[in-house]
Amino acid sequence: MFLHMTMKAARLLLPAACLLWMTGCWSRVEINDRAFVSGMYVDVSEESGYEVSLGFPLSNRLSSGGSMPSGGASDGNPYAIVSKRAGSIPEAIRKIRSDLSREISWGHCRIIIVGTKMAESGVDPILEFVTREPNFHTKSYFLVAPGKGKDITELTPVFERLPSEVLREFAERKVTLDTSVKDLLEAAARGGDAAAALLTIGKVKMVSEKGKLSTWVGTDGAALFKNGKMVGTFNVQEMRAALWIDGKMKSSVISLKSPTDGKTISFLILNSKSKIKPVVSGDRIRFDIRIEAEDDVMSSESDIDLNDPEQISKIENLLSQQLKGRIMSAIQKTQQMGIDVFAFGRYIEWRYPKVWYEHQDHWRSTYKNCEFSVVTQVSVKRTGVEKNPIVRQMQRQQGGSR
């Protein structure tokens, strides 16, 4: 009898339990009610603290086929930029949210741009907001604008549909530093020394925009941070040296003067790798840096015989010396400023934890006196089938046939 009643109760409760799975989530926001942030731009506002600008793609103006869907403005951009000023970053975002017909969603934001003044005043308020926003990706790239971050929103995205996609591609293609929010958070835990990509901006006439004067944005050097505040910059060569040290240099072009006639030879870097080894000997701390790269001859204006192993060896030595000089220049600049933007201190912490314990409280002053041994080895793998410039060969052939 008891077993019968138990089975009967189970049959009644089973459908009720199944209905619980069909109730859905009470806090869910439908996708049609979301505004997806594609980029975040932050500046210091003299009037009210901060100015925050958010970029949003406009779904009613986006089309996979490239044509404008019905109902969208035929001459409008497929994105919008909304800006607000407030005494804090969360308050500015709240004001933006109040003016939108949709709920803000951070899941697609991959770019944070800050103006120079914001970078100089300190990026800690941005990191504070990002770490407390659960839907914000810490892998989002962090870049610095030469003026105001908001000015970057005016760029004309010729090859992409959104301005933020242009900036994201700069970092992903390794044409500049790919510093992320995660990198800045890790740097903050070590004292706040870091380097981030620096942009450049200007006005040019674009054929794609029917010759109109349009905003163009490109990559420049790097912004250097100490205690989370921008204190200096790298030029382009020093920024690229940072890519070499981190082992992130890809598909770059490097040129030098031929050892035979001083004419230009250009090389395409195929791949590179770096190795950093700390060495502690008594009170001396040294870092041994070894960088290897493979190059292809891209073009040559010189009469140098590229099939001669001796000449190739001379070229490889020149390339290696040039690379070593650029890397040492970047390192010495950070030593003079007393900022370990390359995080060499991590290698001491990993390899010599006791030594790190002794120096961590005054690492910046210790870093100024560290020694560096840089060994670079550049190999020219492919020179092509032509040993001399093709144009000159044609000119000689024409001259001989006259």
UniProtKB/TrEMBL annotation:
Spore germination GerAC-like C-terminal domain sequence ranges: 220-384
UniProtKB keywords: Germination, Lipoprotein, Membrane, Palmitate, Signal
One GO-annotated biological process of the protein: spore germination
Domain of life: Bacteria
UniProt-listed InterPro entries: GerAC_N (IPR057336), Spore_GerAC-like (IPR008844), Spore_GerAC-like_C (IPR046953), Spore_GerAC_C_sf (IPR038501)
Chief location: membrane
GO cellular component: membrane
Compartments reported by the entry: Membrane
Gene3D superfamilies cross-referenced by the UniProt entry: Nutrient germinant receptor protein C, domain 3 (3.30.300.210)
Membrane topology: Lipid-anchor
Family the UniProt entry places it in: Belongs to the GerABKC lipoprotein family.
Name this polypeptide is given: Ger(X)C family spore germination protein
Provenance organism: Paenibacillus validus
